[in-house]
Design goal:
mainly alpha; single chain
């Protein structure tokens, strides 16, 4: 079995199942009434945590590929990015449906006046075009360079998510600090990789995306 076949037939299905586990556990706890005293808050926090975790894992694929030399890992990025968007959608939907009960006026006021919601909402909005354009067809329509430039917005979205979390907990938890540290390392790696790449060389990720199904979080 080749490296690509191993990743497609073994690693990807296992990773797909693993990404479903947090949602399955959340649904199970909800159905068994096993959430905290504030179930809406717990659902919001769990989905938000997994949004950030999966975004960071997706962003870590390229550094891991370069360090290990396992180029087939690039085939996991799109799936991880789309799962991150799915959890972000669940996170945002919890706020809209369960917390605010579709009260549009209150939602607009929150977005306008509460900075942590403003930043979180902006980060979510940035993920929407990335999810929509994550297919091979969109790579062809946009071209590899423009597609890559658009998908680098995932770093802005991730930074917004981390800042949203930091402002929400007001320094009372260590988790957002850890997420911020990981994101800084990933950003530093990208800057270093960009500076050490020979001038005029086309990034391998862009070339791969142009030939195969587009991988999110480029």
């Amino acid at each position: 079995m080749t490296q690509v076949q191993w990743i497609d037939r073994v690693v990807k299905p296992l990773l797909f199942a693993a990404c479903l586990v947090p949602a399955a556990l959340l649904l199970s706890d909800f159905l068994r009434d096993n959430l905290s005293a504030n179930p809406i808050e717990e659902i919001t926090h769990r989905t938000g945590d997994w949004t950030l975790r999966l975004l960071l894992v997706a962003l870590a694929v390229t550094p891991l590929r370069r360090v290990t030399g396992v180029n087939g890992l690039i085939r996991l990025r799109r799936m991880l990015g789309l799962f991150a968007f799915t959890y972000a959608l669940l996170h945002f939907s919890t706020y809209i449906v369960l917390d605010q009960f579709f009260a549009l006026d209150a939602i607009v006021e929150d977005v306008a006046k509460r900075p942590y919601i403003t930043v979180g909402f902006t980060g979510f909005c940035l993920l929407i075009p990335l999810a929509v354009t994550s297919t091979k067809g969109w790579v062809r329509r946009l071209g590899g360079n423009r597609w890559g430039a658009l998908h680098r917005l995932v770093y802005v979205a991730a930074a917004g998510g981390v800042l949203h979390y930091l402002w929400l907990v007001k320094g009372n938890q260590a988790a957002p600090v850890y997420y911020a540290g990981i994101l800084v390392v990933l950003l530093a790696f990208r800057v270093w990789a960009g500076r050490t790449r020979p001038r005029g060389a086309r990034p391998q990720e862009a070339a791969t995306a142009a030939r195969t199904p587009a991988e999110m979080a480029s």
